[in-house]
Amino acid sequence: MKQPNGHEIIQLFESWSPKKLAMEGDPVGLHIGQLNRQVGKVLVTLDVNEAVVEEAVRAGAGLIIAHHPPLFRPVKHIWTDTPQGRMIGLCLKHDISVYAAHTNLDIAAGGVNDLLAGKLGLADLRILEKTASGTEEEGLGRVGTLEPAMTLEEFALYVKEHLGVPMVRMVGNSSRKIRKVGVLGGDGNKYIHAAKRAGADVLVTGDLYYHVAQDAEAIDLCVVDPGHNVEKVMIAGVAEKMTSLCRDAKYDVEFLQSEIRTEPFTFI
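Structure (tokenized):
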């Protein structure tokens, strides 16, 4: 078994979730540090903040793979008395590199949306919205069949239980029968019409705006909003996939799952 460097780990990762799949302008790739050093442990996380980096330090991880890019907007200065500056400074001090896979991991086969669809037990999956760079199995969101059919109210409670969230928001008639389900992790406000075209009875997505909810109601599309943080499903999914890929490549590296809660909302 060989201990790989960061380049070799990311090369394997990108064989599954290549950067070319990302939406235009999405800042995916290496954000902090370098990939030349050998890496024995990788921490997988949804978000990167100071607490997550401290977790990586305690675990001895030399690389963090995140879904949400920590430097989403251009950084004009690094002040180490700010939360972002402390996070960057901590990475540099402890030689921890940070790599982000955002919409490419959403779009990739077996990525975030397939993981969410799997949690909901959906069958006969197909792409919700095709993208220019994706294949027949790669695209934004998924649409699948729910067996057995449920009422919207029953399905909303099912989503709450299976995605492990304290609450969901629901749009639509609670007694409406739900059989075909669209799933899109993160912010799916732009995709209610795509879900309707795909024949979905309901779209499961996060961050639903008030007026978009009204628009969904007007086109007779139900929506269940479990929040943005359900994308944390990628933590276990990426760790398991990369463990398998590295085992096949005979790489001696451990993938750790972050246990830091990055959900900013408290529900009362």
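The chain has two domains: 6-105+232-257, 109-227. Residues 54 and 113 are 29 Å apart (CA to CA).
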